[in-house]
Amino acid sequence: MRAASAIIIAAFAALMIYATSGLPVPGDPDAPGSGHVSQYYIEHSMEDTHTPNIVTAVLADYRGFDTLGETLVIFTASLACVLILARRIDRD
Amino acid sequence: MIKRYDSVIVDITCRIMVPFIQLFAIYVIFHGHYSPGGGFQGGVLLASSMILHRLSLGQKESYAKLAPRNASILGTGGMFLFMLTAILPIFFGGMFLDYSFLPIPGLESAMLRYYGILIVEIWIGIAVFGCLVVIFDRLTERRWG
Predict the structure, then answer these.
(1) C-alpha angle with apex A68: B76 to A71, nearest 5 degrees?
(2) B3 in reach of chain A (CB within 8 A)
(3) What pTM does this model have?
(4) CA–CA distances in Å: residue B136 to residues B54, B104, B131
(5) The complex's ipTM?
(6) Which residue, among A62, A66, A74, would best test binding to B if mutated, counting the most B CBs under 10 Å from its CB?
(7) Domain range holding B119?
(8) pLDDT tens-place string over residues B18-48
């Protein structure tokens, strides 16, 4: 059983390492990820939002819905902590 | 129940450090337009300053500074105001989360979006601060006996 799981893990690791050879070089302007909307953000974020930091402009303005979801995730985590861990009065 | 740490050095160091960590956190939130940073990072720094306060000075003194009840009010209030800021533009002719339709008079569209980002970052900071302190309080509260 241990040998089987070790072989499965090794095969999966080899597959993942092989897959990284197909990834684009970081910062490559011809990569599929940098062709869609990032050109627009880089060129227009200053005149659209007066914000020199493009990351902030994308996070809070262009992709504001994503940030709303992230905050909701943290809020839900604290809500779950309160509901599960809060001291409760014994009902007996 | 976290008791006060019985050491003068820890006591004095933490008393001096906590306000400066909070000042830096507020700087991180407000300077997010020009440098790395923003609501999440600033909120986590604020929460960590409060957790340091709780760990070093004990729950009794730290709860007097920020009660668990007030922390949960901060967390929910920040989240609620973020939602409100997101929904408000709908009533003034824009779309969800479109800060250029926020009802602040005398500002052009780009400046409205600039201030919209700032307002939202402040709400995120407050929400993250409150939520993380609530998690810490629930994990460390006295439960048995």
Answers:
(1) 50
(2) no
(3) 0.84
(4) 10, 37, 9
(5) 0.86
(6) A74
(7) 8-140
(8) 999 999 999 999 998 888 888 899 999 999 9
